[in-house]
Records
---
Amino acid sequence: MENNKKVLRKKYKNLRQKLSITEIEELSLTVANKLLTLPIWQKTYFHIFLPITEHKEVDTEFILHMLSGKDKEIIISKSDFETRKMMHYLLTDNTKIKKNEYNIPEPVDGIEVPSNKIEVVFVPLLAFDKKGHRVGYGKGFYDKFLSECKPETIKIGLSFFDAEELIDDVHEGDMKLDYCITPKNNYKFK
């Protein structure tokens, strides 16, 4: 049975679509609470994604509350679909958020933060394997962004589902995760 990115994208999009709003909320809260056990809380600059609710992504609102409760600097991004680059902005009380044409909530503008300042990145994904490779939506935004971060930046995937054994078609440029957190397990990758 092929376990390539295309097959996995389809499988996990379908699995996600079956989740109810209540399940998404409960599972997202479980994932957020499990993050408390990770050795990341001495860091200052945390990058987080705002979920595309239409795609039933992990709701990161609980994590946002944790970060602001711990007085962390929170960074969110805006994607440029022509250059495939992400611009990063500090999330403040004045940040205006607007959905782009792909329903991704994004900051309108703000204080820009360079990638190399970011210490922890919460990474959205559709699937991942036991080696820490992930399958995203296939646009390459995160691989590009993560390659601009410092090597020691901690990359944490968030998923409702557990790891696949192996993703067949991993590329050289695919950035590996350090951790992936699911409602049932905390995965740590070397």
---
Amino acid sequence: MSNTKKELRLKYKTLRKQLSENEREEMSLGISNQLLQLDIWDKNYFHIFLPIEEYQEVDTELILHLLSGKDKEILISKSNFETREMTHYLLTDNTKIKKNQYNIPEPVDGIEVPSKKIEVVFVPLLAFDKKGHRVGYGKGFYDKFLSECQVETIKIGLSFFEAEEIIDDVHEGDMQLDYCVTPNKIYHF
């Protein structure tokens, strides 16, 4: 059976929809507990995505609590759908968050931080393989953003499900993950 991004996108969107809210919460908790074992906590600038509820994404609120408990600088992004670019803002107590037309929660404005400063990125995905390649929603925002980061920036995928053996149609511009964390396991690439 082939494993193209298109097929994997369909498969995992369906699998996610089948999870109950309780299962999603349990699994999100499992993922944030696994993160504590990673060697990333000496870093300062962490980029995180706010979940799109309609897409049943990993709930990153627990990770936000971890980060603020450890006094980390937390960055969230605003996406420009014309240029496919993301602008990163420092998350502070005054940050106003509003959903855009795609239901993505985004900061209205704030203190901008360049990609080059970001040390750890938590990456949303639909599927990933044992080589650290990921399948996102196909818009290319994260590949573009990750290519603007430093080479040593740590890229961590968050997934409810375990790795696929291989993704058939990986492109040259696809950015590889360093880790992918599931509720039960940490993959290191």
